[in-house]
Specification:
Helices cover 41% and strands 18% of the residues. With 670 residues, it is α+β, with helices and mostly antiparallel strands.
Length: 670
């Protein structure tokens, strides 16, 4: 979604260093704006452009993806946009061919707070263009028979397809839904709908019902919720006759009201908290610094635009001189209602990172007179006005400015005089801007995001891994090792690992990976929470790095210890030991039966497989608990040792049953 600032930034970045001022100044063009309410209630903003050979007609519907119900109707706004082009006697392909045959173009976009439709045609085809677009936006009846076709189009646009089992496994392992933290807009502004993709999430949008889409259309697509913008050469009287004619013939859904949900007011109960985050990246270190705000209003737009241009030019010139290897400076902004962010971004390298960060903080966070001179201000302001004036002969440029200004206004219905913020920009003085920066921006929360050189990382990772490994092994050995009387072991039976025996080990490592991913998600959530509390900037990045190393090493060492490897038979118990220290035991008094069994018999008995690829081996029935299924290399000796141990030393052991138990064949010893 493009904001007013983003469009100005793009325009300005494409401008040559010097431009001759066009005959139409910004003030004269925007003072010609007129506003009319059509017969059916649609608000029209009209800007005459006598020399234009084309006209642009745009309809804004003040409803978008933020008006959908999370988890239920996500994607409805986008589906409505496509369904509207499926007219009763033609589809979107026919519509596209008809527009292009007249030498024009059209398009439609769904955004978070609104949807936008437009046609761009030669001036001779005003009636055709207005008729086509009007019938699309005020299409009373959506076509149910085209709904599946529209869903296929949306699937192709978004690259959606039925997930494979690999996709589902990957999502299960790496994207646990219940551990996902709040997104940027929810975390700092309380607007979770602005973090969702405009087309909705695939798993929900692909399951939309036609009645949900139809209900969205009937609720929001009414004449009270639509604003029209026209830029072109037609006289006002001619344009109004054509528009009112079609407004009468296709009145659309007139019983409705303006969507207040898309209009935001300053938050009195909660202001955005400081955003401070750091990641480590040796390849492309960068510094991003700016502001989070939720108190700017419509009148702040020219000040914010001018300040952004001044600061970006200043940073570019100074940083380029400081380092020949670092010269990329840019700015980004995104706003909804009164909230949003403004940030300046610069690439860096390992040598210049600290100096650039310090310089940007000294520039962006300081009062304007300490950074920008009056000469710099005057030149930047003149260049910007000159650049804008040079492009005001293009209908699409004026249409973009008008649309951006109307969207920023609180109820999307400003007076024509209020749209002339470029005139306000021309009247801003150096002292005015300095006072505005000090009064408005300096009270906002800081936005700081760094991708820093790893400094002594990753050099501390190796000793950290070694320390973690030793601590983990010590923990298992001292705290979790069940005491087994290994001094009186009568026999040690080894569980086979070759050839397929390594597969359970692989699965256990995948299990460890799954656990590690979940723990890392928890660490990230904790770091986000600590960052929101305003803790020192570098703390979060280092905490994540250190925690990640400890978690990964610990989990995989513990996973390695879960693989059963040996069976120890002592006079009073049977002990199952893992590859290293972990073990558990079964008192011989608890053993009821030992028999040969297949996989099918193990499943019927609901036996716990100590070997995940149990195919045929020993079934051990216990008096309490589920049976156990496992294999040993020497089953005959194992049975004899159990018999001997159950009778040994004159103890009164219950006789263990061995129904049909005979020595296994040699092939089962491998």
């Amino acid at each position: 979604m493009k904001s007013l600032l983003a469009l100005i930034f793009v325009f300005y970045s494409l401008a040559p260093s010097s431009l001759a001022l066009s005959e139409s100044s910004p003030v004269s063009v925007f003072q010609k704006i007129q506003q009319h309410d059509l017969d059916n209630g649609v608000s029209l903003y009209y800007t005459p452009l006598d020399s234009a050979r084309f006209f642009k007609f745009t309809l804004y519907v003040w409803a978008g993806s933020v008006d959908e119900v999370e988890g239920q109707t996500e994607g409805a706004a986008h589906a409505v946009e496509h369904l509207l082009f499926q007219l009763e006697k033609s589809g979107e392909i026919e519509f596209d061919q008809a527009i292009k045959a007249l030498g024009g173009s059209y398009n439609a976009f769904t955004y978070r707070p609104y949807s936008r439709y437009f046609v761009y045609l030669p001036k001779e085809h005003l009636e055709e263009g207005v008729s086509w677009l009007w019938r699309v936006v005020f299409n009373k009846q959506l076509r149910r028979d085209r709904f599946s076709h529209v869903q296929e189009i949306i699937d192709r646009e978004n690259g959606w397809s039925d997930p494979t089992w690999i996709d589902m496994l990957q999502k299960f392992l790496t994207s646990p839904e219940y551990l996902k933290g709040p997104g940027f807009w929810q975390r700092y502004f309380g607007w979770p709908a602005y973090d969702r993709p405009v087309s909705g999430r695939a798993e929900i949008a692909r399951g939309l019902r036609f009645q949900d889409v139809e209900a969205f259309h009937q609720r929001y697509y009414n004449t009270a919720n639509v604003t029209a913008i026209y830029v072109g050469p037609h006289l006002p009287a001619e344009l109004l006759v054509v528009l009112n004619n079609f407004a009468g013939r296709w009145p659309g859904i007139t019983a409705g009201r303006f969507n207040q949900r898309a209009v935001f007011k300053p938050s009195k109960s909660r202001q955005p908290r400081p955003y401070r985050s750091i990641e480590f990246n040796d390849q492309q270190p960068s510094v991003t610094l700016g502001y989070l705000f939720d108190s700017l209003d419509y009148k702040d737009a020219p000040f914010l635009t001018l300040y952004t241009q001044l600061m970006r030019r200043h940073l570019y010139e100074k940083i380029r001189l400081r380092s020949a290897q670092t010269y990329v400076v840019d700015s980004t902004a995104e706003t909804f209602g009164h909230g949003g962010y403004l940030a300046f971004h610069s690439q860096a390298n390992r040598l210049s990172f600290s100096a650039i960060r310090d310089f940007m903080m000294a520039s962006v966070l300081q009062p304007l007179p300490q950074v920008i001179s009056e000469e710099q201000f005057a030149k930047a302001k003149a260049d910007q006005l000159q650049f804008i004036a040079s492009r005001l002969h293009q209908p699409e440029v004026i249409d973009a400015f008008l649309g951006l200004m109307v969207r920023k206004y609180p109820n999307h219905k400003p007076l024509p005089a209020e749209l002339d913020w470029l005139g306000a920009l021309a009247s801003i003085s150096y002292d005015d801007l300095a006072a505005w920066v000090q009064k408005r921006l300096k009270k906002e929360q800081r936005y700081e995001y760094l991708t820093a050189p790893s400094m002594f990382l990753p050099y501390e990772i190796l000793p950290l891994i070694l320390i973690t490994a030793m601590v983990t092994l010590f923990f298992w050995k001292r705290m979790l090792l069940n005491p087994a009387n290994i001094r009186q072991v009568r026999m040690e039976a080894t569980m086979p690992l070759l050839p397929v025996g390594f597969l359970p080990l692989l699965l256990l490592f995948y299990l460890g990976y799954y656990v590690a991913i979940h723990l890392l998600h928890i660490v990230d959530l904790g770091v986000d929470f600590l960052m929101m509390q305003g803790l020192p900037l570098y703390f979060g990045g280092y905490l994540s790095s250190v925690a990640s190393a400890i978690i990964v090493v610990s989990v995989f060492i513990l996973t390695f210890n879960l693989m059963p490897r040996r069976v120890l038979i002592t006079p009073d118990r049977l002990t199952i030991k893992s590859l290293n220290y972990f073990s558990f035991f079964i008192p011989l008094l608890q053993i009821q039966e030992i028999e040969r069994g297949s996989l099918w018999q193990a499943l019927r008995a609901k036996a716990l497989p100590l070997h995940l690829f149990f195919r045929r081996g020993i079934l051990l029935q216990r008096k309490q608990g589920l049976p156990l299924a496992f294999r040993v290399k020497n089953a005959a000796t194992f049975v004899e040792m159990i018999k001997l141990a159950s009778k040994g030393r004159g103890r009164d052991y219950r006789q263990i049953s061995f129904p049909g138990m005979r020595p296994m064949k040699n092939k089962e010893k491998s």
